[in-house]
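Below: protein 1.
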Amino acid sequence: MFGYIQLYQDELKIKNLKEYKSIYCSVCNELHIKYGIKYSMLLNYECVFLYVFLEGVILLDKNEYEYHCILNPLRRGRIKLNKELLSYVAFINVYLAEGKLKDDYDDNNAILNKMLIGILNTSYAYRQDCKKFSYIVNKVDFYLNKLRELEKCKNTNIDDYSKTMGEVLMNIVEFYLDFNKIKSNQKDKIKEIAYILGQWIYIIDAYDDYEKDNKKKNFNPFLNGNVKNYKQIGIDMMNIMIWRMKVILNSVEIYTREDIIKNVINFGLYKKILEVQKHK
């Protein structure tokens, strides 16, 4: 589920790449400060992009944020960020990672995953944030549980699975806007992009895991639906989703981080598809 939303560095200016890396380090640093050093290991590209995207399409106040690398304390930097959004993204990063661990435990009954889930909940700050953001916690749980129920069905259309993951990301975005009383005439378009991106993540993850799931007899929507020629069908589905996001994004006003956002949507997602294809 994680690691698919990345830059295409060859199409990005050096200054924008430095900017992205600073945001990446800031999310990592926030995980460390809020919850503890072990939580930084859960950092994923999806939540880094979540920060970049939301900050880009919403007018937010920003203040200087200082970060330092946990692996190299001498490496420090400063960047102007919105602290509330950064804090929210850090929480979402951990909560989605916990959901992934639970899902893997359900699939494989891996004792290590259960132990890791227990370790995550040792943070008092994390438990408090689960209460603070209880509405979105319940929403995410609802759709993840719905997804698990769908995965038990034998004749469910593959679109039903991906749409459920789309609801997860869309609700994460919508909750942030509502929780912070942010008014935006672009709200519907922002939500739609998040919805399609959530679908895309689900499809590429299933596409990537096809051989592994087939070998281990794990659930996979392409296997479950007896999808013939899954390689071409999966590629077609992902390309259509990218095209839809590009069309909507072209009608959205982007206030900041525009080069990074468009790099990911216009180039990074295609690049990741090609990388996954090479292993087929």
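Below: protein 2.
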Amino acid sequence: MDTLNIDIVSAMFKDIHPLFPVTFCALDNNGFSVYGYPNLSTAPFCCAMRNHPTLHHLCRVSDHRAVSVSQNQNDPYMYTCHAGLTEIIVPVRKSNLIIGYLKCGQFAVESNLELINTTANNYESVYQLSELSLTNTVDTIRIFSEELAMGAKKLLAIMAENAATHNKALSNAYSLPYEINSYIESHVGENVSIETIAKHFNISHSMLYNICKKINNCSVKEYIITRKLERAKTHLINGYSVENTAECVGIDDTNYFIRLFKSKVGITPKQFQLAYEIK
């Protein structure tokens, strides 16, 4: 099956970012993020959101809905997420088949500033988010005019067309970064390791590290942990026990999973789950 040419996508993101400095990302045909620029990390405001179970769930709902809506249209879909931020997503099609998506966002248009501030204050009050300093991160959100946002929408459409055109004769060197991220995403529920990934793609550990560092801005181990914890959050929100959640993300030692989760998220898996249930 055809996939996005990550080198082409990366080059486009890097060229456009100085003119429109927001978060860009490429998604596979299932809607999973496989490449981000400057990286796959979210902006401070969005990061604070996703560290709370209920708000993390709302973010995921917004993400999935955007993918679902954009599947049925050719033009970029520009929308406002649950927190008031603006995002744009467009499918990349080849022979009428969706091979991935391009997305940019985590910015605000001027007309939504009041909505964003009101939403942040309401979330802090309702969900007791003082420890996340949600309102303190509002000032980090990039603000653009309506005209510039519309320009970005048109630009993303051109980028998607370019990504589809240059996807022909995709070489292994071009597809490898994408395939590695897709492989990790598909095997999050297993005890996936650096050794198994390198062996699967018949590459050295150092080459694997360099590829992962280039596309994810982190080591292979760090990226695997990030994807496991994101999957774990979803399972916890859906009512899985801590033990079952650990097993579902390929971690046999529940105590290790609890320590790892707390070190990265700031609270234990049970506290994360309870916070969502109390919403």
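The radius of gyration is 19 Å.
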